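Q: What does the assembly look like in three dimensions?
Context provided by user:
Components: two
Sequences:
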Amino acid sequence: MKTYFIYLIVAVTIFTGCQSSPDIIDDLSDTSFKLLNQDSVEVTFPNDYEGKYVVMGFIYTNCPDICPIITQNLIKIQRELGYPEDVQFLGVTFDPTRDTPSVLANYKKVFKLDKNFDFLTGEASTISAFMDSVRVRSQVSLSTTTEDGKELYFMNHSDKIMVLDKKSRVIIEYGGSMPQVPTLIIEDFQKLR
Amino acid sequence: MKSIFITIIIFPFLLFCSAQEKKELPKSSDEIIISDGWARPGKAGMMSAAYFKIINGTSSADTLFSVESDASTNTQIHLSFQNEDGLMSMEEQPYVVIPAQSEVEFKQGGLHVMIIQPTNDLLEGDSLSLKLFFNSMTKFDLKVPIRSFN
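A: Here is the predicted structure of the complete assembly.
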């Protein structure tokens, strides 16, 4: 009897150990940020997305090279997952001064994006606090002068795509512009679902 | 039976040979070739970028020092890289050397031509005019397709 009991304990231990419960990198469920999407609709992050997975990248629309790659990777993930209803895709700008909702709406049009794909901006102070909470850094780097005499600046920035579970906990993070990111995140999703 | 044999065996073989030929780089020649060009779609007043491959088949190095486009009065050559703080960064390149008998690729995440605030929408399916200026006094006029990212 005692032997059976030991076998039972070992089996339960192995079984529970094999369950795919991802590590929690960060818990954003106790945060709350009032943001605006590209249609100027107010969004409360993360409350409005609870009950959905969130795949989120961080961009600015004047970025000529890296941020479009991050956006492309988000698009690939969405497409290869089959445009799931329970996964919200977000691109959040760290340049709210220039990236107003109408600018983000144009950016969304360029990429021909699905309804489950939104871009978010907000007040500069709110965006700053938001970026701190997701550990995304940015700073003005180069600047150039345009034909009409206006200053155009570029930014150094973190390179990140993260996935939040349905309870607003960060469970996956990768370099956002890495070419292998879509494959890695899709594999991770397959383990989760 | 004979026609089936031709369809199954010969036709794929010919296709394979044809595909292989297209991949061949030019052997030693006196040419600089620009290939595989494309540009990202973009809205007027926003931002886009162009990419291409420069193949220098000549026996001497050459230097690309300027790129112009009809689509914008402000185009710049930049290099994306990760800086010492782990942040993604860019640096303007005053010129790009193309060594003899080699190729340099402008590609996403690396060298690119910034098309700053294009005057018109750059629409998928259209083309973008570029002028590339080299030290050897060579100038290339080319049109690259504006195409989707994926």
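Follow-up: Confidence is low (pLDDT under 50) at residues 12-19 of chain A.
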